[in-house]
Each structure stands twice: as C-alpha cells, then as structure tokens.
Design goal:
The complex is a heterodimer. Chain A is an alpha/beta fold. Chain A has helices spanning 44-51, 69-74, 93-97, 99-103, 108-121, 137-149, 167-184, 195-201, 235-250, 253-256; strands at residues 4-13, 18-28, 33-37, 59-64, 67-68, 78-81, 155-159, 187-192, 204-209, 214-220. Chain A has a domain at 83-152. Chain A has a 6-stranded mixed β-sheet, with helices on both faces. In chain A, strands 2-1-4-5 form a 4-stranded antiparallel β-sheet. By secondary structure, chain B is an all-alpha fold. The longest helix of chain B has 36 residues, at 184-219. The chains are: A alpha/beta, B mainly alpha.
C-alpha cells in the first residue's frame, strides 16, 4: 500500500482566482523521505497542506494509507511540524510533547513514559520541566518534532521546519532528523527552500515549478544510508545537487532568486 | 525583578510625596486666599491628620470608633462585591465561550451586550432590587440584589476581553490541533481558553474595582445601611459639620477596591505562565 497517492490534483483559491496547483500526480511509498522544493509560489506548502487535509483539493484525489485524506487525519495518521515550532507557552516542554497523546486520550502513566522516551530521542531529557521560551530556536524545533512523532503517526509532514534556524544548527538537526526517521521508520514529506538540505535528507526530491504549481521533475537520491557530515563532501552529493539545480533553473527559479542554491556550496 | 523591600520603599515614598503635595496645595491656597477652582478651607479640603484622627474617634457620641464602623461596612460591601464579581466573571466568561462558537451569535448578540452598558447603573438598580429581592435564598437575603448589580458591571469587560482572548491563538496552533484531529471541545479547552488567560486577567483587574463601585452604588436604591454605600449616604448629610468622616469613608472604599485589584494580580501570578514579553 502506498503511503501517499495523489492523482489529478488541482487547487484553486477562489480568492483572487489563483491556481496554486495543477495536475499533480505523485506516489510516495512507506518509509520514504520525500522533499518538495521549488521557488516561492510553486505551491509546495499548499501541496503539503492538501496532503494533510488542512485545506481541501479543488479537483483530484489524495489518499493516505489507502484512505481519503480527511479520514486519515481523523485517524491520527499525521504528525505536523511548521517553520515556527508553535509550542504552547502555557505548557512545559514535556506537556507540549504529550499534547497529541492527551488528545488521543492516553492515560497519565502511559503518556509520561512515551514523553520521556521522545525527549530522550531528541536529546532534551533534562528539559522536560522547562518552559518553551527558555529554549533556543533549535531546541524548540526538536520539541516540535518530538511532539509530532509522539503518537507514532504514519506520516510526518514538515513545512520548512529548519527555515528559521542558522546554518550550523540546521545541519546538526538534519542529521538528528535522519537518525529519528531511521529509528521510527516513518514516512516524511518535507518542504524546503534549500537544495543541499533536500538532497542530504531525502530518498527522492520533487522539484516544482511556479504559477501554476506543477511537478517539474523528480530526482532519486541514491546516496548511501546512513548519511553523515561526510555525505555532503561526496562527489555524488554534488552531482545530485547539480541535477536538482538544473531542474530548478529550467523552471525559472534562478531569475526569481528564491531558491538558496548558494547554500549547496 | 526588584526585591519586595525595594518595592515597599518606593510605595512608601510615593505615598509620602502625595501627602506632602496635598498639604502643600492646601497651604498655598489658604495663605494666598485663591478661590479658583474652589476656596480651600477645613470643609472643602480637611487636613490629612484630621481625616486620620476622625478614624480613631467615635462617629457619634458614645458610639464605636469610626474605623471599626467603616471596617465592618467594608466587610459587608466586600461580601456583596465578591459575590457580584464572581457571578459577573463566570457569566462573562460563559458568554464569551458561547459567542466564540459562532460568528452569527457574535453578530447577533454583541451589539446588545454593548448596549447593556450604556444604560446607567442607577437607572436599572431599583428594578433589579424589585425583581431579585423576593427570590433570594436565605444566606444572601437582603443584599443579593446588590451583588447582581455589581455583577452587571463586572461581566461586560470579562465577556469582551475573553472573547478576544479566545480568538487570539496563533492560526498555526489551530492548524496543529486540526492536524491532530482535536475535537471542538479539546480545541476550546486546550488552546482557546489557555490562550485567553492574559486577556481574561486584564479584564478581571478592571472588573475587580468596578464590582466594588457597583456594590456601593447598588446599596443606595436597596436602602442597605450596613455597607459603605450607606455610610457614604449618611456622612454626606453631615458633610458641612464633619467632612472628615466622608473623606475617611472614601479612603476605606478606595482601600477595598485596591484589595480586590491586588487579589486578581496575585491570582494572575499563580495561574498565568507565559513568556514575560507575552503578557497582554
């Protein structure tokens, strides 16, 4: 069974009559790590939101684990991470991580056990009693990831989660995310602006073109697992980065200047 | 965060400075004989020490000390204001919860809620007394109507501010709750209500003092003699003979309002855990 199956997807916003997505067909297998990349206005975030049933498609179908997206959402198949960590100020770090478990009605003991486990996974076990605003941006993002994975969702949707972080924190979190992904064996759909990040993390990179948003091409990333800091220095890594960049150039991303190709080097 | 000692010292110095200003103003106006905006004498502006001295003397010949009379009145009015504040806050909060459920309800009812506050409290107080008093249970018999009048002043800021607070959460936080398939009530109690707390407490601070004023005013048409409202009415009649008594009563009334305010501030410290910069 495919994890995500999209066919003939079109999304039009009635406000301003904008076609954000047109004729998208995409299949994602369980355990894949798929990045969506493209210039601003290519609809990559909209596509993620349609997959997550945060906004309905205008035409076409989205199936997740063989179910329509709204059904998948109600079945708690999604973990969600945004660019801002969106932690609740009035909850401690531990209670933020346990929020989805509360919504699912887990009892206190079971919740505590899982929250401790998740905090260990993101290496924040000694910060459970801290308030969110006492943590650095990178640590807040790790809390958000722990929260999204706490109930072992079938699919993790990430919308530029590291976009607001500095380069060093970003690269460290990239490695941590891969570690978590391998251990949890979840499917990840990841929206990013950064070519190097997309290539480094993914098993497949989906390049999108703007106005209206379409799939311009797909690059299979055959870099060996597990990936390490050395991966970024392998010749194959550069070849793949170049392949993605060529595709982006084809869709006019260079002129828009909105894709951070520089960060690859 | 400054220490309690430093804070108390600042407060003391400020109070002393205000007292000095008051006496200085008196002295200048009395010695120069200025009559604008009003002539200053022992009736229009009694000495501060006259006011404090009056607290330590019997209010009428052979009676108890004024301070003990006023403290008893303040306790009585405080009881009315506390019940009114509680009822008003609960009603205001419930109303906000109800209104946030539907935009239609908001558009339909909000104008009338606003309009309710344009009616002078003195105009409805007698009606409230007539409607409510016959139906009061034993433990609030006699003064329950005053609490209802205080509640009338309390509920409005609570309802308006809480409604705003319930709508104040980050849109992404709502999306997060949606992604986790949270039910309406889960979203309400785990996101909207906690997000509204800073707003609720700023409203409660306004309402705390308003409920004391409401209770004092409510005592007048209810012909209640045991509270500060009764005391004010009484000392008003003898102002030209003994102005210090009314001034002393005002002092105690202000102290009651401040006590209510501080109680809310204390509760806020305990309840609201927020990044320091996020206090509304």
């Amino acid at each position: 069974m495919t994890a995500v199956s999209i066919s003939g997807l079109t999304k039009t916003f009635t406000k301003g009559n904008v076609t954000a997505l047109q004729g998208i067909d995409l299949e994602i297998q369980p355990g894949e790590f798929v990045s969506l990349i493209g210039p601003s206005g290519c609809g990559k975030s909209t596509l993620l939101r349609v997959i997550g049933d945060l906004t309905p498609p205008t035409e076409g179908t989205v199936e997740v684990n063989g179910k329509p997206a709204p059904r998948a959402r109600r079945d708690h198949d999604y973990g969600m991470v945004f660019q801002d960590s969106v932690l609740f100020d009035w909850r401690t770090v531990a209670r933020n991580v346990g929020l989805p478990l509360e919504l699912l009605g887990w009892d206190r003991a079971k919740r505590k056990e899982r929250v401790d486990e998740m905090l260990r996974l993101v290496e924040l076990e000694s910060f459970g009693d801290h308030n969110p605003w006492q943590l650095s941006g990178g640590m807040q993002m790790r809390v958000a990831i722990a929260r999204a994975l706490s109930f072992e969702p079938a699919i993790l949707l990430m919308d530029e989660p590291f976009g607001a972080l500095d380069e060093m924190t970003r690269e460290r979190l990239n490695i941590e995310l891969l570690e978590i992904w391998r251990r949890m064996q979840s499917t990840v759909v990841f929206v990013t602006h950064s070519i190097s990040e997309a290539v480094f993390l993914s098993t497949r990179v989906v390049v999108m073109s703007p106005r209206p948003g379409r799939v311009a091409g797909v690059v299979d990333v055959d870099l060996p697992q597990p990936r390490t800091t050395d991966t970024r220095e392998e010749p194959r890594f550069f070849e793949l980065v170049t392949a993605v960049r060529e595709l982006l150039r084809g869709v006019g991303a260079e002129e828009h200047g909105s894709v951070t190709a520089e960060t690859a080097l | 965060m400054r220490s309690t000692a430093a804070k108390s010292l600042t407060l003391l110095v400020t109070l002393l400075a205000l007292a000095c200003l008051y006496e200085l103003y008196r002295w200048i106006w009395v010695t120069t004989g200025w009559t604008w905006p009003f002539a200053v004498n022992d009736i229009t502006l009694p000495h501060l020490w006259t006011i404090f001295k009056a607290l330590g003397e019997p209010s009428r010949y052979g009676g108890p000390l004024l301070i003990s009379v006023l403290l008893k009145s303040a306790l009585f009015t405080g009881k009315e204001a506390l019940l009114g504040f509680t009822m008003g806050a609960l009603f205001g909060f419930a109303l906000a919860i109800l209104l946030v459920q539907s935009g239609l309800a908001q558009r339909a009812f909000l104008p009338y809620i606003v309009a309710s506050q344009t009616i002078p409290i003195l105009a409805i107080a007698p009606m409230v007394v007539v409607w409510v008093t016959p139906h009061l249970p034993g433990f609030i018999a006699g003064w329950g109507a005053v609490a209802v009048i205080a509640a009338y002043l309390t509920f409005f800021p609570v309802a308006i501010n809480t409604l705003r607070g319930l709508q104040s959460a980050d849109p992404r936080a709502h999306e997060l709750m949606r992604a986790y398939a949270a039910s309406r009530s889960q979203e309400l109690w785990r996101l909207r209500v906690p997000a509204s707390m800073p707003y609720l407490f700023s409203a409660l601070k306004v309402s705390a003092t308003a409920s004391v004023v409401g209770a004092i005013i409510g005592e007048l048409p209810s012909s209640i003699q045991d509270g500060l409202g009764g005391a004010i009415l009484n000392f008003n009649q003898y102002y030209s003979i003994n102005p210090a008594n009314l001034w002393a009563t005002n002092l105690i009334a202000a102290a009651l309002g401040i006590a209510f305010f501080l109680a809310v501030v204390l509760a806020e410290r305990i309840v609201v855990h927020r990044a320091p910069e996020n206090f509304a």
